[in-house]
Amino acid sequence: MVKAPRARPLLADDQPIRSHAREPRDPKQPQLPFDPMPDRIEPCLALLKPRPPVGDEWFYEVKWDGYRIAVHLNKGNVRILTRGGHDWTHRFPHIDQAAKALGVGTAIIDGEAVVLDPEGRPHFGMLQNSLGGRGGKLPSGQALMMAFDLLYFDGHDIRSLELTARRYFLESLLRNEDGAIRLSDTIDGDGREIFAAACRHGLEGIIAKHKDSSYRSGRLGDWVKIKCVQSDSFIVVGYEPSPVARGGIGSLLLAARKGDAWVYVGNVGTGFNESSAAALRKLLDRIVRRRPPVVYDGGRKDIVWVQPTLIAEIEYRAWTHDGKLRHASYKGLREHQDNAAVLEVSGG
Fold this sequence. Notes:
One of its GO terms (molecular function) is DNA ligase (ATP) activity. Helix content is about 15%, strand content about 30%. The protein has 5 helices and 18 strands. A hairpin with a 7-residue loop joins strand 11 (about 230-240) and strand 12 (about 250-260).
């Protein structure tokens, strides 16, 4: 099984900070009729905000940097579905085994598949490498699941319950788990201080969740994400060749979506290592095209243009006044099965 790479929660200086336990259920409560188990549930998505909401009605979690997954457990049978609904059970064998070992007959657990670095921080590049890179077919021997919601439990659809109630059942289910399925700790307090602590620890950001919200699919504002460093998905439209750079790639040319077209948003030339650059070059050379898929104003003449099919996850600090990325760094390629949405920029 996967070993724990950290001794304590990321944002706790002393003891673990967890959400408050609820009172035990009344044993006299009548049994509820069983609900049919959904084949798939569209995930609840977090709305991006520049600042965290503040108030007693919110609690906060680490923003895990990996692949969103849902674990479906049905009488010993496990399916692990990506955000796009693709079955990746075979790619996360340790999570599969951990789900089968849970003491419940049926459940749907919402969470994130991650690989943690030696400091216990999620690392998207390490997750991708463990899966064999973008388009790879390897099962990950390192990935674990950080579970943050429970949607179906012991024959009952509990999405209509408030988040604190769902968390109570999830904590009961994962109380003693420290293997490949782990509880994503919740933190009560001032969202501004928690966000500052996350940034000091080198995390991508935090998620704020409304305690009384039911589970609603889509991006409706019940969950809010606040990022220390901006990170979004962009389409790769070409590259600048270089005889001295890793993989012969000086930089990637990136585009965002604007209506039904692509708009050039700049280059990224950092974040590659030897193996990722070489693998990326092989993918790019298979999709070369003669004409640029975007209007290019970068000035270079030796650009190698490619079909706009590869989606790259990019970290960046800000935007320039003319709509280009500043201080961009390459994190890796997104899988199509992950259903990653390419950033859309407004018109004008």
